[in-house]
Each structure stands twice: as structure tokens, then as C-alpha cells.
Amino acid sequence: MASITLIKEDDLIQSIQDALQYISYYHPVDFIQAVHGAYEREESSAAKDAMAQILINSRMCAEGHRPICQDTGIVNVFVTVGMKVQFDTEQSLDDLINEGVRRAYALPDNVLRASVLSDPAGARLNTKDNTPAVIHVDLVPGNEVSIHVAAKGGGSEAKSKLAMLNPADSITDWVLKTVPTMGAGWCPPGMLGIGIGGTAEKATLLAKRSLMDEIDIHELQQRGPRSRIEALRLEIFEKVNGLGIGAQGLGGLTTVLDVKIMDYPTHAANLPVAMIPNCAATRHVHFKLTGEGPAELNPPTLEDWPQITWDAAKGARRVNLDTVTRAEVQGWQPGETLLLSGKMLTGRDAAHKRIRDLFEAGESLPEGVDLAGKFIYYVGPVDPVREEVVGPAGPTTATRMDGFTEMMLRETGLLGMVGKAERGPVAIDAIQRFGAVYLMAVGGAAYLVSKAIRKSRVVAFEDLGMEAIHEFEVEDMPVTVAVDSHGISVHQTGPKIWQEKIGLIPTQTLA
After folding, report:
1. CA 469 – CA 488 distance, rounded (Å)
2. Rounded to whole angstroms, how far apart are CA atoms 311 and 453?
3. pTM (two decimals)
4. Neighbour-count burial of 316, counting CB atoms closer than 10 A to its CB (0-12 exposed, 13-18 middle, 19+ buried)
5. Is-contact 442 394, C-beta < 8 A?
6. Which of 414, 402, 411, 431 is nearest to 358 (CA)?
7. What are the Cα distances from residue 504, in Å, to 252, 253, 459, 508?
8. Are the C-beta atoms of residues 283 and 73 closer than 8 Å to each other?
9. Are 321 and 374 a contacting pair, CB within 8 Å?
10. Contacts of 360 (CB under 8 A, 6+ apart)
11. C-alpha distances in angstroms, 490 versus 363, 401, 434, 483, 504?
12. Half-sphere exposure of 154 toward its Cβ, with a 13 Å CA cutoff?
């Protein structure tokens, strides 16, 4: 009979802290290998360029111990506790885990962005330390504690889907109908986690848990499926990539790197199916506690990252943000690469809402916020450490600002916007009518983007924290013209072109 294992509270707290710091700057090696493989197979220059930035950013973060993405996530923890385990503490398990989160996000050498808000349907106040985590606990036979820790970005989490299908419905058909509606805000290439069965909440939990497993789809392709679930994984993997969505939604051969599926018995009348994507900032790690101290997490070696060179300046148009004119913008082409230099302001959801409230109250913009003929960057940066001007500062999902776009263009004279992923019909219509432009930066390359920012200062709404309005001075910041002044969107044209091309490419070539 197994003996009782005593887990000290400090060991659990330290392990959670270390795990969250670890995953903030180390991609899982299997993920790096999968992106590199997709990069080498890719035939779309735009998608290949995006994956190059993701891989270079990943290596930079591993070297510099800084976050892969400015959205350092909401913490998800799956804990499996052996029933022969005893915790040496007076605190609850949730309290111990949350203390580890609190310490991890405030570590001075690598401060992580606090994104968690309390009172979600009301005041939405930042908890300041990224607590509480979302915690799931299972009790099993045994005398050890097994923990999976993940930091889930809000952009990919926002694309989660749940359907209560009829038993005779096709799961594959539902996935193929649903994935295009998710847009590119989840930052492909990534993984799809699918949960089948149980009840609505069980299917969702299965989908999330499946994302903690290693990427192994190519090994599965080579040996062939041994179960219905494995066959379904292969079918969905091939057909989703056949949609041509591609990296960052720009069109290409690889949209998903793997499809994970977990299932559970369900009611005869039901077929619950949940789907949750993991983004290009996939972050998770697994460790065990056996009563012998905190977990030891072995860092990967730099040899695990491919040596990739990337020249943003090749064929790019240089743009001076301080002197650019509306007439100049009219000549920018969809899909064209720009290198931005000069001053731009930042603003996300909360700042846009506050600006709208000011206008509705008959008030003007705060001093220092002049958007006439200027560009705004949808970003919530990580706080700087050491010699940094600003921490990782990648783009946030632009569609969240779609409802504010016409107001901003009409009332402020804004010339253009920089964000992540596609724009919706309302925003595209406003962009066309006002002769503005939308530029896309690569989601999942936040540290790389931050190196283009030479100066940063808060100019308004300081109380909003990371959502305050900053003024950035950038030099050669790489972006793509995603919606031109005539309303042409590369997120509409690119996937359509590549879906047609993929239909003509033999399946074995894509494997």
C-alpha cells in the first residue's frame, strides 16, 4: 500500500510560480518543431513571413526571458491529486495556486501583464495580480500530485465554440462550418481542442484539457488511426487546413498544427461538441509533485529553435507616420508590407469606450490625444523591465474595435489603425467611406514588435493600466496592409485564393 505523501505549501506555490514564468518565455518544443515544419512546407509568402516572425520572436523570448505575447493569459490549472496525498497547509488548494499566480505575475525580472478583471458584467476592475486562476481538480488513486498549467490568451479563448448537436449530425461538418466564422483573431497556426460528449460543461472542459497534450498529428498520419477518435482527428486536420485560412488568416497551407479530441459518454438525446483553439502563443507545461520539493522544469536548449533569418525591409515601403497624408495612403496595396516610423497612439476597448463617452457628453479628447491624420495601435503592452522602453507589445484582436471605428474616423480624423486579424463588415465599410486604412501586425510576435518601439509614454487614461493611451515612437515597425482605402481585405481574398490552390495540390504533398 502506498504511503502518505506530504506536500508542503511553499513547494506548491513555488512550482506554480516557476511554471508560469517558464511558459511565459518558452514555447513547448513540440510546438516550435510543428511551426518550423509548417514554415518549411508553406508556399504562401505572406503566411511564411508571419511564421518566420513567430519563430524568431519565440527564440528571442527564450534568450531574453520575456513574454512570447503581450497577452500573458488567464491561468488555467488542471490538478490531479492522489488520494494518498496530504497538503501541509491551513490554506485551500485554490488559495495556494492563486498565491503562486500572484507571485509569478509580479516577478521583477519578468513582470507579466495582469489581464484578469473582477465583476465581469459590471465595473470590470482589474485584480492587478492576474488572480484568480481557473482551477479544475480531480481525485484519483495514488500518492502524487500531477499539474498541467496553461496561460490562455483572451484572443483565442474568445473564439471558443459550443454546440448541442443532434446525435445524427456530422461533427466534421460542424467544425468546417464553424472554423471560418472564428476569423483569425485566435492567431493561427495553432491547435484545435475538441471535446465530445458528457454535458455542455463537460464537453468544454474536455476541449480545454485536450490542448495540454503534445503535438503528434504527423506521427499519427504515418502510422494510421487505431480508433474512431484518431480517424476523426486526421479527417478534421486535413479538411480544416484545406480551408486555406493560413497563418494569421492571410491564406496558406497550414491553419492548424494539430487537432486534439477527448470524449466522454453522453445522454442518448445529445451530442455536445465544444471547440477551443490554442494560438501561436501556445503556453503550457506539466509537472508532478512527490513530496521531494518544488518541481524542476528543465529549460529547452537554443538548438531546439531553428535558425531563421527574416528581412522585413526586402521589398517593403517605408512610411513616416509624422508626415503621411491621406493621398499617400490611397496608393497602398492590399497585402503590401510597410515599415512604420514615427509617432502613433495606442488604444484598446476601454480607451475607445471612454472616448465614446466623452463625445456623447459633449466633451473633447484629453490633452495630448490628437488623432487627426494619425494612426492608432490596438495594444495593451507588458510593463518594461531592465533597459526596456516597453515590454512585449503585440497587437490585440481588431474586431473588438469594429463598433467604434466609424465614430473614431468621423470624430477624430483618424487616418489608420494597426491591429491583429481581420475586420468585420461594419469596420470595412467605414474604412472605405472615410478613405482610411487598416494595417495588421503579426499576433504571436510581441517581443519582436516591441524592439521597433524606441520611446513610450502614457498620455491619457493612466488609471486603465495596460489599456491606457500610450504614445509610441517606432522605427521600422513591420505591418501588412490588411484593408486598403478601397475596402479590399486580404483576410477575404487570401483564404479564398489558397482554398482553391489547395484543392489542386495532392494530399500527400501537404502532409
Report:
1. 29
2. 18
3. 0.93
4. middle
5. yes
6. 411
7. 13, 12, 52, 12
8. yes
9. yes
10. none
11. 37, 18, 19, 7, 21
12. 18
Question: Would you say residue 509 has pLDDT above 80?
Answer: no
SS3 state of residue 261: strand
Helix (H, G, I), strand (E, B) or coil at 411: helix
Give the per-residue pLDDT at 311. 78
How many CB atoms are closer than 10 A to CB 222?
A: 8
DSSP 290: -
User: What was the pLDDT predicted at 510?
Assistant: 59
Q: pLDDT (tens digit, 9 = 90+) per residue, 287-339?
A: 999 999 999 999 999 899 998 888 776 779 999 999 999 999 999 999 999 99
Nearest to 157 by CA among 186, 196, 191, 116: 186
pLDDT at residue 108 tops 90: yes
My answer on whether omega of the bond before 300 falls inside 30° of 0, hence cis, is no
Q: What is the CATH architecture assignment of 317-495?
A: Alpha-Beta Barrel (3.20)
- What distance in Å separates the CA atoms of residue 499 and residue 198, rounded to the nearest whole number? 34
Q: Residue 282 and residue 68: Cα distance in Å, rounded?
A: 9
Residue ranges of the chain assigned to CATH 3.20.130.10: 317-495
Provide the Cα torsion 300, 155, 415, 474; round to 10°. Answer: -20
Q: What is the DSSP letter of 191?
A: E
Distance CA 509, CA 494 (A): 20
Query: 3-state DSSP call for residue 318?
Result: strand
Q: Which three cell numbers stand for residue 200?
A: 455542455
Check: CB of residue 332 under 8 Å from CB of residue 481.
Answer: yes
Reported as a single tens digit per residue, the pLDDT across 477-495 is 999 999 999 999 999 999 9
Instruction: Please report, in angstroms and rounded to a whole number, the separation of the first and last CA atoms in the chain.
Output: 48
DSSP letter for 250, please.
Answer: S
**Nearest Cα to 102, choosing from 190, 39, 14, 22?**
14
Closest among 160, 94, 105, 80 to 132, alpha carbons compared: 94
Q: Residue 145's closest CA among 89, 82, 91?
A: 82
pLDDT for residue 313: 66
Are the C-beta atoms of residues 210 and 261 closer than 8 Å to each other? yes
Region of 12 on the Ramachandran plot (φ > 0 left; ψ -120 to 50 alpha; else beta)? alpha
pLDDT in tens, 154-169: 999 999 999 999 999 9
Give the DSSP letter string of 351-396.
HHHHHHHHHHTTPPPPTT---TT-EEE---PPPP-TT-SSS--PPP
User: Would you place residue 503 in the very low, low, confident or very high pLDDT band (cuts 50, 70, 90)?
Assistant: confident
Grouping H, G, I as helix, E, B as strand and the rest as coil, residue 422 is: coil
Locate 126 and state its grid cell.
482589474
Please say if the pLDDT value at position 21 is more than 60: yes
> How many angstroms separate the most distant Cα atoms in the chain?
79
Average pLDDT of the chain, as a whole number: 95
Q: Spell out the residues 6+ positions from residue 463 whose beta carbon is closer than 8 angstroms to its own.
A: none
Contacts of the segment 506-509: beta carbons below 8 A, 24+ positions apart: 507/238
